Amino acid sequence: MSEIRIDALLPQEMATRAEYLGVRKAEMPFLKMFMLAILAGAFISLGAIFATTVSAGSMAITTAEGEAAFTTGFPYGFNRLLVGLVFCLGLILVVVGGAELFTGNNLIVMAWASGKVKGRAMLRNWLIVYLGNFVGAIGTVILMFFSKQYTFGANSVGIAALRIGVSKVELTFLQAVALGILCNALVCLAVWMTFSARSTIDKIAAIIFPITAFVAAGFEHSIANMYFIPYALFIKYFDPAYISEVSGKVANLNQLTWQAFLVNNLIPVTIGNVIGGALLVAAVYWAIFLRPSNA
Q1: 2: in domain
Q2: Cβ distance 128 to 33 under 8 Å?
Q3: Distance between CA 31 and CA 202 in Å, rounded?
Q4: Domain limits at 136?
Q5: pLDDT digits 0-9 by tens, 78-103
Q6: pLDDT tens digits for 43-71?
Q7: What is the tally of structural domains in the chain?
Q8: Is 1 part of a structural domain of the chain?
Q9: What is the dihedral of CA 289, 199, 129, 288, to 10 degrees?
């Protein structure tokens, strides 16, 4: 009679599950993989929308002269904590709802290292999922732009979105790579811990702290940035009247360009995400739990 267990899986069992899921992901048909990747891009964007709105962190007030002004009630660290907590929505939707996220799929390296997935199949998954994530994120950007949600809170949401975009394109290449490494180490640790889960609540609990940590610390996630920066760019380039109204409240807005998005952020952050997820998490856990004893 087999033993019935209700407790979480142990790390050795989690490694076996990660390997199994890696094979399933790599073998997924193109259309299903691409559609699930679009969903993941949209899901992460929903977390980013939530985070942007909360990061506005301002209450609109009116001065004695009748002018709009803003006051913030929280210190920097506490505000970052709130932003991190709400951003968790994105990965919760991906894991519980079911979707294919490029950064989490860096864990396929465990199945590849075991010889159960060919390198070509792993790279195929990464490319298709990365492109699908981009489509999902940009689609969400377009919808959000036409919603004009950035004008809410007496324009404070849009100001927050622009400031986020500018801060991300001001990074140096090396800084962006390092922040990307740290980010996806935490993201893949969150996904790794969900492999131990026996219930939906277990999965959500495993996600909250690592994701809150990376957002609060200001680390860089390539898929989230496919929403954050293009959203700021859409506002800048396609609503000049709005920009003329708020540009004085956003420093260095001239640095926010499509070229800066790709060169200063998306490319180096993607490189960093792969290093952080594939090497610092997947390869390390493979070496600990799955490497043949005679290797």
Answers
A1: no
A2: yes
A3: 30
A4: 11-61+68-289
A5: 999 999 999 999 999 999 999 999 99
A6: 999 999 999 999 996 544 444 454 444 45
A7: 1
A8: no
A9: -10
